[in-house]
Amino acid sequence: MPASALICSLILATEIAALPTFTQVILYTDVDGRARFREELIPLEGGSPQTRLSELMPAHGMQLRQSPLGFRSDVHVTGQPQWLFILSGVMEIGLLDGSSRIFKAGKHFYSADTLPEGATFDPSVHGHWSRQLGDEPLVTLFVKS
Questions:
Q1: What is the residue extent of each domain of the chain?
Q2: Is the pTM of this model over 0.85?
Q3: What's the CA gap between 107 and 25, in Å, rounded?
Q4: Calpha distance 64→75 (Å, rounded)
Q5: Of 28, 98, 110, 112, which is most buried by a Cβ count within 10 Å?
Q6: What is the pLDDT of residues 108-133, one digit of tens each?
Q7: Which residues of 59-84 are buried (b: 16+ CB within 10 A; e: fewer)?
Q8: How far is CA 68 from CA 47, 77, 127, in A?
Q9: What CATH code is assigned to 20-144?
């Protein structure tokens, strides 16, 4: 590779590495049918240097929910993949392996822990639970994908 091509490749690689990203927290169903968390980076390649944008993502509706103090759900799976944004309050998501994550106002996750195809729901294997924490009602926004 000529030196000029190598320099151009290094400059391009540096520019790509310098692009801002959005960390998407994903609640998903692993191959064993159990809910797990992972993180993926969404590149913010569009827009301008002052307002970096991701690619446009499909959505077909949104829904608001308020959960009172003391709310705790039963173990369940997500019916349809959706973004979940915490508008106010604090939400804990617990997995069946005993781990959990706490999401405060301004945080998010993408909930995609759907029931595996052909499976019958078993609360000892599938899903997660959620609960409100603290002294403020939990207000969330669901964006259905």
A1: 20-144
A2: no
A3: 9
A4: 21
A5: 110
A6: 999 999 999 999 999 999 999 999 99
A7: eeeeeeeebeeebeeebbbbeeebbb
A8: 39, 21, 22
A9: 2.60.120.10
